[in-house]
Automatic annotation (TrEMBL):
PROSITE patterns: RSMI. It is found in: Cytoplasm. GO terms for cellular component: cytoplasm. Transmembrane segments: none annotated. It holds the Pfam family RsmI_C. Its EC number is 2.1.1.198. This is Ribosomal RNA small subunit methyltransferase I. The gene is rsmI. It is an enzyme of class 2 (transferase). It comes from Shewanella gaetbuli. Keywords: Cytoplasm, Methyltransferase, rRNA processing, S-adenosyl-L-methionine, Transferase. Its main location: cytoplasm. It catalyses: cytidine(1402) in 16S rRNA + S-adenosyl-L-methionine = 2'-O-methylcytidine(1402) in 16S rRNA + S-adenosyl-L-homocysteine + H(+). GO terms for molecular function: rRNA (cytosine-2'-O-)-methyltransferase activity.
Length: 249
């Protein structure tokens, strides 16, 4: 039966396209790409000649109906985005919802995702985390969003663009405080892959001091909120100390 395949593509290193992904991209009738020219480079690298069509944020809702017609006619389709996993800060949500509601199969392939790849090597707690996508572009929206997350105990993951990295780091220092542990992962899987870790103030200082750290693709990860130990000594401990003190010479 025809299906819509969700196919992750590399986030920098072409070698990260799986053999299963290559097989599916060759087999389907059509590849829906966020940007056909951009994906053309990857597809031609692998000699994949399947027909391509554009599916991006601006036409996704209109295209969904058309995709359902193709599936009904028996044609399988693969969805890819410019990089990484479709739907993760990328188009595809409306399409998948529509295709499922129309009763067709949606089959996901596992593969690259910048958030998960960066988290796996960050050294930050990975047992619980929250993916927050891109922070708002405007200062007020950004600060409001960070304030809502300030007490969240989970590791927080954000995507960021190079021209907003300084502003976002400044907002993080302002709202989470200078001492919050964090990691900035840049150009993951590419030649200039860098992980900067330290307190928020330290990471901001490193990025301010080196313009190269303000370039490329960036994932910001913040340690979750840590409740400080109660500063007052509990009553039971004071009783014990008083007894012990009485015994001392
Ligand atoms: N769908 C993609 C995924 O699964 O990761 C994310 C697409 S989103 C439009 C692009 C953002 O992902 C970039 O601005 C950056 O924050 C992050 N990103 C993508 N590739 C990256 C890489 N190689 N290193 C670090 N961050 C990356």
């Amino acid at each position: 039966v025809a299906a819509l395949y969700i196919v992750p593509t590399p986030i920098g290193n072409f070698a990260d396209l799986s053999s299963h992904a290559i097989e599916v991209l060759n087999r389907v009738s059509l590849i829906a790409c966020e940007d056909t020219r951009h994906s053309g480079r990857l597809l031609s690298h692998y000699g994949i000649e399947t027909r391509k069509t554009a599916l991006h944020d601006h036409n996704e809702r209109d295209r969904a109906q058309w995709v359902v017609q193709q599936l009904a006619a028996g044609d399988s389709i693969a969805l890819i985005s410019d990089a990484g996993t479709p739907l993760i800060s990328d188009p595809g949500y409306h399409l998948v919802k529509h295709v499922r509601e129309a009763g067709h199969k949606v089959i996901p392939l596992p593969g690259p995702c910048a958030a998960i790849t960066a988290l796996s090597a960050s050294g930050l707690p990975s047992d619980r985390f929250s993916f927050e996508g891109f922070l708002p572009a405007k200062e007020k929206g950004r600060v409001d969003k960070l304030q809502a997350l300030q007490q969240d105990p989970r590791t927080l993951i954000f995507y960021e663009s190079p021209h907003r990295i300084l502003a976002s780091l400044e907002s993080i220092v302002k709202v989470f405080g200078e001492d919050r542990q964090m990691v900035m992962a840049r150009e993951v899987t590419k030649t200039f892959e860098t992980f900067l870790s330290g307190t928020a103030a330290e990471v901001l200082a490193m990025v301010q001091a080196d313009e190269n750290q303000q370039k490329g693709e960036i994932v910001i990860m913040c340690h979750g909120f840590v409740q400080l130990e109660e500063e007052t000594t509990p009553a039971a401990a004071i009783d014990t100390l008083t007894l012990l003190a009485a015994e001392l010479p």
